């Protein structure tokens, strides 16, 4: 298997802050790697270093010669006056440069080198470049190709950059939070697209379903070092816990021996110092192990919700629209005590507007929202992250309260509270501008929960939060003695937190679905299948039924039917075996790549044979 990238003994620091030290790993052809770390551990910095956009202290980053690399930045930037389509040609790649070279040739008298250019255009499939970019943009719901960049939202800009990264079909694709700003349909499209391509991947994402279904290897940055796991996200969780347990046992044993050796060191006569030098050296090495603290802290959200009465809020006959875009139309809803509602829907269907109407930040065209007297909102908004960058972290919290009430008479100082959110004393006295994007999000969440709300309204809380924070936030919300409304595109998060969904289909079509997101997705798939069947002309269906009623399965069809059953069963068995092997961690890199490529082929074969089996089974019945 060809090696695409090799990183050796890489170290990066900012002043006294060391992000990672002497880390080494490689990426080979066919590997799909998810990069996981706590916020502030250097995930984005590492991607920038690999992409050549940031320097490093020492080490080496070596690519295979002529390797094509695509990079999706966390915050892409384009000149404001470009159109959407022009932006897709702005960041040069080999195909774009070839197209420009062809255009210059055609504008030059005599068209020098045209024959060679035509051959290269065919080889690069450059003739279809514009059409392909439009197709990908359409999948990402960017359809106005002449719109100016300055008129786009940050989410639309990120999707244009994603289309740019995908269209070049690079050998190695590096993605920094690709699912941020994608709605659920777009996320599932991207997931399927990446699974069916032969691209090698290195990506940072907090979407755990995405990691589980796309990646075949996880790399974790922890305590300035990297740990590699040959398997998907579920396999990583299992093996990481084994590593934690083993490390804890090692440290415990070292501590026990350390106490004995420490006593010996204190009692050791000076005359024996030379003879016991080897034991002294061993003592200092043992001391290093004994004083290790495995970095397995959790964000502990132990803030208690204040009392909430039976009356929460009641929306009565709400109407809201912007010109031809309808958000709400005669919408009424009575919110129950301890209810946990998830809100899903495509971008632009009015989810955030609905939240702002509830919070009183936007007025409905007509109708009323009646809020209960005991309700205390905690509102986490997409645009609420507004700190003074020159303030210290501790001052941000102390400006709200010096002491935080935890309930049951318990209290906590602002500094203690921040430590529960993984802000070390050093970080607390650092300035806000030094925090990573995810750390600022965590601080923002901290300032909301410390006010003891009993009704949490969370608008896209999962963007930029690390997976460890998300896990504990999920647990906190599950045990939260209050009401919750969550707007999120994180499918795993929604599955863990909500009791039911409010589905925004657009143009004020809002449906209440009893269940989590996976339940809704299964129901939606079944409904779409039934709708497709109902769309078939009635006459064709009647004729087919009448024909099937009259004829029996031929001998040849019967043999095919029986053979298909066996083939489908064998394919399903092979699929289960491959999935088990991919999660086992026992495969070599070559075997892992081979099995990963085989899996989508198996899925296609199963689908094709199942459809034929269904056709024959209708004759049989």
Describe this structure in words.
A hairpin with a 2-residue loop joins strand 10 and strand 11 (325-334). It is globular and about 80 Å long. Residues 541-550 have low confidence and may be disordered. The protein folds into four domains: 3-235, P-loop containing nucleotide triphosphate hydrolases (Rossmann fold); 238-290; 313-524, 3-Layer(aba) Sandwich (Rossmann fold); 536-620, no CATH class. With 621 residues, the chain is of the alpha/beta class.
What's the topology here?
Elements: E1 3-14, E2 17-28, E3 32-37, H1 43-50, E4 58-63, E5 69-72, H2 84-88, H3 94-107, H4 114-124, H5 129-139, H6 154-167, E6 172-176, H7 184-196, E7 200-204, H8 208-214, E8 217-222, E9 225-229, H9 233-267, H10 277-290, E10 313-322, E11 325-334, E12 340-345, H11 351-358, E13 366-371, E14 377-380, H12 393-398, E15 403-407, E16 410-413, H13 414-420, H14 425-428, H15 437-449, E17 455-459, H16 467-479, E18 483-487, H17 491-497, E19 500-504, E20 510-513, H18 517-535, H19 538-550, H20 555-584, H21 589-620
Parallel strand pairs: 3-7, 3-8, 5-6, 6-7, 12-18, 12-19, 14-17, 17-18
Antiparallel strand pairs: 1-2, 1-4, 8-9, 10-11, 10-13, 15-16, 19-20
Helix pairs in contact: 3-4, 5-6, 9-10, 20-21
